[in-house]
Amino acid sequence: MCGIAGTVSLGQAPVHTPYALAACAAMAHRGPDETGSFTASNAALAMCRLKVIGLHDGSQPVFSDDRTVVCVLNGEIYNHQELRAFLASRGRPVHGGSDAQVLPHLYQELGEHFVERLHGMFAVAVYDTRTDRLVLATDRVGKKPLFYAKPSADSVAFASELPALMQHPGIGRDIDPLAVDQYLGYRVVPAPHTIYQQVRKLEPATTLVLERGRPERRRRYWQFDFTAELTDLPEAEIDERVDALLQQAVQDRLESEVPLGAMLSGGLDSSLVVAMATKQLGRPLHTFSVGFEHAAFDESVHARAVAEHCGTWHHTYRIGPQDAVEAVDTILSHMGEPYAFPSAIAASCMYKLARQYVTVVLTGDGSDEIFCGYGRYQRLRDLSAGGSLADRYEGVLLDGVPQTLKSRLYAADFAERLPRQPHNYLRARFDRTDPSVPDLDRAMQVDSGFWLSDAQLVKIDRMSMAHSVEPRSPLLDHRLIDFVTRVPADRKLVGHEEKAPLKRVAARYLPRQVLERRKQELAVPLESWLGTELRSTISDTLTSEAALERGYFDPDALRSTVHEFRPEHSYALWTLYMLERWHQLQEDSTAREMTAAAHA
Question: What is the pTM of this model?
Fold first, then answer.
């Protein structure tokens, strides 16, 4: 696991060679163990490394034998041993123990399609010195991020994190109004947008090829495919396949040359992963959870019960409102743009705790989107049919700033820069789904290509990497996904029982009380904190002179909304607060940079 960065000139533009190492310095938390770089007349690539596999011979960048192909990798390639055997059979032996070392050889053998042979989590950059070709690629579900921009018409820069990319002096900081509008509704900025007009996120399962003298080529090489075709497959066969595929996924993620543990909330998903992992390892794991004083949010007692059942060394961190205050700036600094999921507070605390004991953790993330686990799927199913599916689903999904409140808040000048309100950004995503497939399967397909990567995996990556911990998610193994997405939604959500196949499999490994417990998502007592410890902070921030003059909102409407502080607007107020706090952090950073430059 690491952070990667680079810049390449595809024409006459000079390369700003200091950028690559400056970007890595800005995200040294992703790779505190080692830094490496490559510089040529028209390219500079660098990486900062968290050592996990190939501790003594896994340095990056990695090269082909003739050194014409150079590569940097963020992530893990779980099938690197299989790829080594394949390459050896093709006359391309791979030297060294790191998984990254297969990549330049695989590229030479298969060209741009090398990425389709990779099994793992990754963002990768391959630079071919013979053709001045840069290939950027992301893993299938979007576990590992990659941001990019064009500082000039014939150059490109990329990085694993947005703040790192913004180290390039040629990238502008103009705000994208569409990004702000989407953020306020969804509480995240969906890919390919970022908060900045000039910067884009490379979407999951995508290759981007940039080459001197040729137009850029973008290709989606895999997708979630909710076909609902396995209508007649016997229940017992579904369960056997899920069990076998998940066991294999867990086994593949146990390879590590550094201490490995697991996140354990006490819910179904993480409990099942821990049970399988401890059974396969035959020894205890360190496991980690968080707790709260608010009983409605505290799962720590359930996590400890599972830990005792599995025989793990369990650790718990109890979160209070002061942790939320301290976590806000950490969250926004690592996201590099507004992000308003309060569960990131809990995630940050969990990974901070884990780092005291291990470097790698297994997680239970990813099952809700493929096994029909969210409560909103039940609400969508129970809605009357008719009208636009996109409109019906938006009604159960949006929980940031409601459309009615946005319309009241927006300044007239800002609203003129947006699509006519209200605008449903989900419509284009639903248009890309198969209308012959049941509505619930289509909704899960949209979530898997949007909500999973842009809301959930973003949180997991940034909060784990903020504390130099590598997360691995067996439930997001693409082989498991390829099977489960063919099972119809009505065989996963049975009555009011969500994730039915996964629960049946879990019954083979876990006590009954884990299976029967009401589903509880990782959450924090935001409403309580907003009404007490956090209220003055949020009120003062949103009614500050800078916030009122930001240009997004009518000052009187914003002031009125904040002063009302209505309970039903809790998430809206948090979303507005995180936007303004992000702006404040950017301004503070700019001021520090100007002061440093003045004294240089």
Answer: 0.95
Structure tokens at 447: 């979530």
SS3 95: coil
Rounded-to-integer distance, Cα 12 and Cα 436, Å: 50
Strand partners, 72: 125
Say how many Å lie between the first and final Cα of the chain, rounded: 34
**b vs e for 32-54, b when ≥16 Cβ sit within 10 Å of the residue's Cβ?**
ebebbbbeeebbbbbbbbbbbbb
Residues 6+ apart with CB under 8 A from 231: 488, 491
Residues 6+ apart with CB under 8 A from 384: none
Mean pLDDT, the chain, whole residue set: 93
Report the pLDDT value the prediction gives residue 407, as an integer from 0 to 100: 92
Reduce the secondary structure of 255-320 to three states and give it as a string: CCCCCEEEECCCCHHHHHHHHHHHHHHCCCCEEEEEEECCHHHCCHHHHHHHHHHHCCEEEEEEEC
Helix or strand holding residue 183 (H, E):
helix 177-186
- Per residue in 264-280, pLDDT (tens digit) is 998 999 999 999 999 99
Give exposure, 240-267, as e/b (b: 16+ Cβ within 10 Å).
Answer: ebbbebbbebbebbbbeeeebbbbbbbb
What is the β-pairing status of strands 260-263 and 286-292? parallel
Specify whether the CB–CB gap between 201 and 124 falls below 8 A: no
Q: 493-497, long-range: CB within 8 Å, 24+ apart, which pairs?
A: 493/372, 493/377, 493/378, 493/381, 493/440, 496/378
DSSP 8-state symbol, 416: T
Residues 362, 363, 365: CA angle, nearest 5 degrees: 150
